[in-house]
Specification:
mainly alpha, Serine Threonine Protein Phosphatase 5, Tetratricopeptide repeat, 70% helix, 0% strand, globular, binds adenosine-5'-diphosphate, binds magnesium ion, transferase, DhaL_dom_sf, Dihydroxyacetone_Kinase, glycerone kinase activity
């Protein structure tokens, strides 16, 4: 377990977000400004370019640089939110052994950054509605003795349920909140990209 595993995650995530860019943008066209797929694809392409030109010694260095790349390349709500997630994720792992427990703490720290920036609460129809059940499922799996792949698989499954549960919700944060009641009946784009990121982590991290 080392920095190469996290490089694999970021590369796989970039591929998944690229493959799903049209889908994410379609979701955002219903309740936003039809750019979420393009935003995520642009940000993760820039991360791949970074990985192609730089080799990283540590996970914290890698994730912090990935986060800074998202902040600088992706506008809108999702750039600063995902950027902060990766920055905090990296910071939490500085000097730490890479275990299911410390990686879980890094996920929690990353999501704490999303909350600090975006002020979302559960049920606001945002990416947090995927992250929150994912963190709970991850921690429960680790407490039950799961390895990293097992905990991430549980997290990705919980994120997918949280994503699906955003459909009937009325948005209370972000652009979708401008629609009020008309935002109900549509799946949140950010909860969808969060699920893709976690599915990618479950595929790539051992
Ligand atoms: P923008 O809305 O600026 O065009 P994107 O379309 O890239 O940005 O991202 C939209 C997603 O960002 C939403 O689907 C939602 O999940 C997430 N989001 C928006 N505002 C917040 C917030 N305050 N907290 C958490 N997530 C948010
Ligand atoms: Mg948008
Ligand atoms: Mg936008």
């Amino acid at each position: 377990m080392g920095v190469d595993n996290f490089v694999n995650w970021l590369r796989d995530a970039a591929g998944s977000l690229h493959d799903n860019a049209a889908y994410l943008t379609e979701l955002d066209s219903a309740i936003g400004d039809a750019d979420h797929g393009a935003n995520m694809d642009r940000g993760f392409r820039a991360i791949v370019a970074l990985l192609d030109e730089t080799s990283f010694e540590t996970v914290d260095e890698l994730m912090k640089k990935a986060g800074m790349t998202l902040v600088s390349k992706v506008g809108g709500a999702s750039g600063p939110l995902y950027g902060t997630f990766f920055l905090r994720f990296g910071t939490a792992l500085a000097g730490a052994d890479l275990t299911p427990a410390t990686i879980g703490e890094a996920f929690t720290a990353g999501v704490g950054g999303i909350l600090q920036r975006g002020k979302a609460e559960l049920g606001d129809k945002t990416m947090y509605d995927a992250w929150a059940p994912a963190l709970d499922a991850y921690d429960a799996a680790v407490a039950g003795g799961a390895d990293l792949a097992g905990a991430l698989t549980a997290a990705a499954e919980a994120a997918a349920k949280g994503r699906d549960a955003t459909v009937p919700l009325v948005a209370r944060k972000g652009r979708a909140s401008y629609l009020g009641e008309r935002s109900a009946g549509h799946q949140d784009p950010g909860a969808t990209s969060t699920t893709l990121l976690l599915e990618s982590a479950a595929r790539t991290l051992p």
